[in-house]
Amino acid sequence: MSRLGLRLAACLLNISEARRKYIVENIAEAALLDKNGQKHPEVTVLNIFSDQDYNRSVITIAASVDKLGLAESLILHVPGCSVFLFGEADLPEKRSLVQRRKQLGWFTRRDFSALEPDLGAAPARRCGLTACFRAL
Predict the structure, then answer these.
(1) What are the chain's domains?
(2) In this predicted structure, what is the pLDDT of residue 62?
(3) How far apart are CA 8 and CA 50, in angstroms?
(4) Residue 32 — left, alpha, or beta (φ > 0 → left; ψ -120 to 50 → alpha)?
(5) 70 contacts: CB under 8 Å, gap ≥ 6
(6) By the 8 A CB rule, do 32 and 43 touch?
(7) Residue 112 CA to its chain's centroid (Å)
(8) How far is CA 103 from CA 32, 54, 92, 100, 128, in A?
(9) Alpha-carbon torsion 133, 36, 46, 75, what sign?
(10) What is each CA distance from 102 to 15, 94, 95, 106, in whole angstroms?
(11) Are 134 and 13 a contacting pair, CB within 8 Å?
(12) Burial of 90 by CB count in 10 Å (0-12 exposed, 13-18 middle, 19+ buried)?
């Protein structure tokens, strides 16, 4: 397929961290790597926005649609990362982020270690990373 015919998708990674810049940068770097640690030529970080007051960051990534194995790559390169799928990635249910958080008891739960993530390790506490993919 020519570069003009490349189908793109955008991914917004929402991270419960902003004050420790190196953590945000490590996650952004990990998003660029495949499972073998090699940089994907068709993946790029477009923007990193961090809010120090709320200790939250958003990383905007663009990739070809066939390179969206991002969640699998992140759990390999970011130790302790938990992934809970929602939207188009949550097959067959395709639950929204709000529906998924309610189902998990995300805002009322005290023991997060009992949760079973779709990928990665069980979370130690309510923090972490969520992602939303959209075809462009």
Answers:
(1) 1-67 (3.30.990.10), 69-135 (no CATH)
(2) 83
(3) 24
(4) alpha
(5) 11, 31, 43, 61, 63, 131, 133
(6) yes
(7) 18
(8) 31, 25, 15, 5, 17
(9) positive
(10) 19, 14, 10, 6
(11) no
(12) middle
Dist CA 124 CA 89 (whole Å): 23
Nearest one of 47, 52, 49 to 19, comparing CA atoms: 52
A 10 A CB-CB count for 96 gives 13
Token pair of 133, please? 């993919």
CA 56 to mean position of chain CA atoms:
13
Q: What percent of the chain has pLDDT over 90?
A: 12
Tokens describing residue 51: 């809010």
Q: What is the mean pLDDT of residues 104-111?
A: 80
